[in-house]
What does this fold into?
Amino acid sequence: MNKKIMLSVGAVVMALTIGLAACNGEGGASQLEAARLPRTPNYGSEVAVHDPSIFKDDDGTYYAFGTHYAVAKSTDLMSWTQYASDGQWQKLYDATTPYTHLGRQWPKAIEDTVKAVNPKDKGNDTIGTTWAPDVIKLGSKYYMYYSLTDAFGSRGSAIARVEASSVTGPYSDNVVLFKTGKEGDPNGIDPTVFYDKEGKLWMVFGSAFGGINIIELNASGKDIGLPTEEEQALIDSGLYGETIWQASDNNAEGPYIFYNEQLDYYYLMCSYGDLNTTYNMRVARSKNPNGPYEDIDGTDVSSDSTAGNKLAGNYQFNGGEVRVGLGHNSVLVEDGKYLVVSHVRNALSGMHHLEVHQLFFNEDGWPVLSPNRYAGEELGRIDADDVAGKYDLILHSEGITTEIVASEEYTFMADGSVMKSADNVGTWELSGDYYITVTIGENEYKGVIAPSYIDYNSEAGYTITAMATKLDYRNALWANPVKGG
It folds into this structure.
């Protein structure tokens, strides 16, 4: 059984959280239970895992693997423990005979990759660790795919793989899949591996250098998890699969693909911007694992580096901390839930930590992201009487920007209107069990209502996550209930 956990990336979304009493379940012909508010979760201490890739082991423990060898683990996706901190490669590899390159110690197991890439000595900017590992279990073995680059801002990189009999290692048996570096090459970083619905195995990778590419891997046999014979021949000739997301400076990295069986779509998520300041998640979808992937207005993202639905930008709710740089996420698909695992910062260029947010799908099949951390919430039926109230609402920024958008107070009225101060600025309308359509000015958002826990308010309520439907309008709207409102 494939234990790989998958993630989805940034769509144009609105998330609106409603802090009212739970629905009493009357007055509807739904097959779903009324939505119930989550209990207060135990989030514990923050853990630092940059570029987190989520994996669930056979015993039910979740692991988030990240850049700089960092690893965290959890049993509920809410309370996390730091298993390995940045630089602690000894937690994953045999440390008895390290390999030294330019005065830095590396795991002996990955010596071939270090020699192939030859990280340069650039003082404090010297590359001293692997980047963006991704773990998948194939048969009885755990395989960690990782990347290594010779310097920041360089396409001189390599993607390699190590294996182990335990999820935490020790990893060995290194194989270098390929190295990039020539002008025109994609950047050999940020690999993630997934199965499609037909059982084929794929690896997606890349960055602003050359865009996001995908290659097929062997799904069985002695070369399981390595490029197919056809793909290897292309690699040997200097070609690295298909480009499925175009990129330019500061655009598109950290790709992740997951499949929604009910909607029969593959979703490709990427992160745009500077990871310290402007990072934001984007998403596009396709009927095929290798594309073409399109955004909400039908733009093929392989031909337009500005495309992709933006899921969230920098923001601050009234009473909450600044949140910057959500991105480089993975997605866990489990028991009908889709959970985004990403890093986020508390300020521009601040320290990063790991957060998990639930991802839903609106009635048009587009992903929408909860503005609040995961608390075990479940979708359920919502009645119109539960919607009215005051909200701290965020209209996320468009494009790539350092702007931190602060929430403003809006009121959702019982008659279906949306007010800002004394001005009528829009409407809202429910449909089905939990779908909602909201208009703010000329912009329409379609989304989903779900329970949520609002950490900074220590309150629970209902969450509406929605996506803008207007063409060329790729931002998000989030709202949390005004405390006591």
